[in-house]
Design brief:
By secondary structure, this protein is of the alpha+beta class. It has a single domain, classed as 3-Layer(aba) Sandwich (Beta-lactamase). The protein is 29% helix and 19% strand. The protein has eight helices and ten strands. The protein has a six-stranded mixed beta sheet, with helices on both faces. The protein has a two-stranded antiparallel ribbon with strand order 4-5. Strands 6-7 form a two-stranded antiparallel ribbon. The longest helix is centred in the first third of the chain and has 14 residues. It starts with a helix and ends in a 5-residue tail after the last helix.
């Protein structure tokens, strides 16, 4: 009887419940790391409109580019696509990224640049502005220290302000380089100290100069000869510093002064030779003159030659 009762459901078509199958847990969502975003700076394709042969004797430096940035015309190209070491002209990119963040966050004149022990982790023979652990500067002050006195410590302070670490900042520099269309540039630090894998080209540096020149405040900073900074140290005591531009093209008392130059950045290492960027303005148009691989005494004569070739300017 018990056996018959057991088979009745099957005989009359009752459906028996199947044992529940274990449900596999849903796969955890993996966040996708977004790439950095940057302010859009359109750069029109550049055309070549040579003013002179690159073999012109008056163009003394090893590599250079002279570009009409407004019209997108490469006017002089002497080995402009050759790989070169930029030295401290690197700091134009560092300043560009720091300025863009500070403006976006409304922090340009806030005391948000704090010097840490890691900030001062730079080669012993670096050019510095003698910042100390605990110093607290505004972004604007750190930009002046970076662009005028070319302090590697100041450049690192901006890098850490932007990205938290210099390594992460270098990644940002290279990402910005790609966005700007740089094809021969790779960064390994924020200040330009020589590294075999830290390089650029004169034409790429001209494109960085173009982006830099779209911000009037950056042009003003890099075109200032002297600047007074007052900031607090770790103990809250006030420090006062005067910083002077190493680029004599913006020093009216210098024989190298040029009324066309609105901003400039210097550089030098044994490996790079003398490097220099000049942002110029003439008749409402912007120009970039980038000189690389220069020996002592070659940069400013080359600048004067370009002024004569392009603008028919001569100095007494």
């Amino acid at each position: 009887m018990i056996g018959l009762l057991a088979i009745i459901p099957a005989l009359i078509g009752f459906k028996q419940e199947a044992e529940p199958k274990p449900v596999a847990p849903a796969a955890a969502a993996v966040p996708v790391k977004q790439g950095p975003s940057f302010p859009e700076i359109p750069i029109k394709p550049w055309t070549t409109q040579p003013l002179v042969s690159p073999d012109t004797a008056e163009l003394l430096v090893g590599s250079m580019a002279f570009v009409n940035l407004t019209d997108g015309q490469v006017l002089i190209d002497k080995n402009g696509a050759d790989r070169v070491f930029p030295a401290s002209t690197t700091k134009l990119m560092t300043a560009l990224l720091a300025y863009e963040k500070a403006v976006a966050e409304k922090e340009l004149d806030q005391n948000v640049v704090i010097v840490k022990k890691s900030t001062l982790d730079i080669p012993w023979d670096s050019h510095i502005v003698h910042l100390a652990v605990g110093d607290r500067l505004t972004v604007r002050q750190a930009l002046y220290a970076t662009l005028l006195e070319s302090g590697n410590d100041a450049a690192n302070s901006l890098a850490e302000y932007v990205s938290g670490s210099t390594n992460e900042f270098v990644e940002l520099m290279n990402a910005r380089a790609q966005v700007l269309g740089l094809t021969g540039t790779q960064f390994r630090n924020a200040h330009g100290y020589s590294d075999p894998n830290h390089y650029t080209t004169a034409l790429d540096m001209a494109r960085i100069t173009y982006a830099f020149g779209t911000y009037p405040e950056l042009v003003e900073i890099a075109g200032t000869y002297e600047y007074e900074a007052k900031f607090k140290d770790a103990a809250g005591n006030q420090k006062r510093r005067w910083w002077y531009h190493l680029g004599s093209a913006v020093n009216e008392r210098s024989i190298h002064y040029s009324k066309l130059v609105t901003a400039t950045k210097t550089g030098y290492t044994d490996e790079s030779g003398y490097t220099m960027v000049f942002l110029m303005e003439r008749d409402g148009k912007q120009y970039a003159l980038v000189t690389m691989q220069a020996k002592s005494g070659q940069t400013f004569p080359t600048m004067r030659s370009v002024e004569k070739i392009a603008f028919n300017l001569t100095t007494e």
